[in-house]
Amino acid sequence: MPIPVIDLFAGPGGLGEGFSKASSADFQIAVSIEKDGMAFETLQLRAAHRALMKSGGADRTTWQRWDSILAGSPWNIAFEALQASGDDLILAACTKARNEAWNLEMGPGNREVVSRGIRERLRHMTGRNALPRNAVLIGGPPCQAYSVVGRSRNRGTAGYKAEKDHRHFLYKEYLRVIEEFRPAVFIMENVKGILTSQVSDRHIFETIVADLRRPDIASGNDSGLEYTLVALPQGSADMFDPEPGEYIVEAETHGVPQARHRVIICG
The pTM is what? Predict the structure, then answer.
């Protein structure tokens, strides 16, 4: 049975790409949402590529046509060029990608659209009206308000007040999806600077962690929904009772040729 994955604040789809390539389980992206146009183009192209890979019918000629179109098309019209390829398999893959990848901004104005759309995608994937019990939610709310560089820029902005910067609170859109769809597992990723970012003299990370444990209360409902937060194993650290710094994953210690450090919270 496929495991549906909901990807919020997806960027170009790095987290979703990892899940889709996992060999241990049949993870399938149900929906990925991203507001940035350039990131969305990559997200959509990768979704189409995965769909074509899974179609089972793509032969050498189809893949040569795919490669030729991408090589000869600017990034911003590559997807349109694929749709105009005349190849039925490529067109079908693009149709699946359009349904999966959405160019949409998370926020109050789009909550109903997001809720209805996710529900429809889950129903399409599972063939059932009931919410799946094995769904996975992934994503990384925007980091500009949390990163050290972003905070330095903000301090240089006249009249800037952290508590009025809506980007500090976009993680609440992630909470709303947790509270409504109750995924079996969620993974939230962000920059290391989130550990020291403050709003109203309080570390925002403390608030985020408390809200992730009880997303129902954070969303205004006391339904008893509760998650255990887990840090990925870090030496002798207690992964089920982590200190803030124990949520940091260092990419170079996992065979990645990049000194990229990220805070990753599993629930």
Answer: 0.88
